[in-house]
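Quick one, C-alpha cells below. Sequence please?
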C-alpha cells in the first residue's frame, strides 16, 4: 500500500509550483513599489539658529512653497502670543538638539532663561531664531 501512495503523490507539477513563486515575487514587488510611492523626500536641512533681532534671513525655496524672510514685527500676533506655551516644547527639543554643535549654544542659553519671565522668553526667541513668512 505504501508503494501505491508513493506512486500517486499529491505534489503539484513543476510549472504550477514556479507559477505560485512568481506570483509571490510580483506581490512583494508591488507592495514595495506602493510603499516607496508613499515616502516623501528628505526634509530641508536647517543650518541652525543664530538670528539677529530685527534682522532678516535670505529667502529660501522648499517643496511646500517659498519662504520669505520677515521681521518679528511682521509676524501677526507675535507680540500678543503667550510664549510660555512654546517653552516646554523648546526645552524638550533641546534635549536632543543640544548635542549638535549649531544648537549647543542656543539650547544652553534657553536653559538659563527664567520660564516665568515673558519678556525674557520673547527676547530669547527674537535673538536666537529668524522668522519666515510662508
Amino acid at each position: 500500500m505504501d508503494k501505491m501512495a508513493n506512486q500517486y503523490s499529491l505534489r503539484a507539477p513543476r510549472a504550477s509550483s514556479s507559477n505560485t513563486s512568481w506570483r509571490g515575487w510580483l506581490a512583494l514587488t508591488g507592495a514595495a513599489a506602493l510603499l516607496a510611492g508613499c515616502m516623501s523626500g528628505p526634509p530641508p536641512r536647517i543650518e541652525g539658529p543664530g538670528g539677529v533681532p530685527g534682522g532678516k534671513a535670505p529667502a529660501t525655496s522648499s517643496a511646500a512653497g517659498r519662504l520669505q524672510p520677515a521681521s518679528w514685527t511682521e509676524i501677526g500676533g507675535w507680540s500678543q502670543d503667550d510664549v510660555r506655551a512654546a517653552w516646554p516644547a523648546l526645552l524638550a527639543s533641546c534635549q536632543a538638539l543640544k548635542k549638535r554643535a549649531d544648537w549647543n549654544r542656543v539650547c544652553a542659553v534657553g536653559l538659563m532663561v527664567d520660564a516665568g519671565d515673558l519678556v525674557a522668553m520673547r527676547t530669547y526667541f527674537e535673538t536666537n531664531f529668524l522668522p519666515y513668512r510662508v
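The chain has five helices and three strands. The mean pLDDT is 72.
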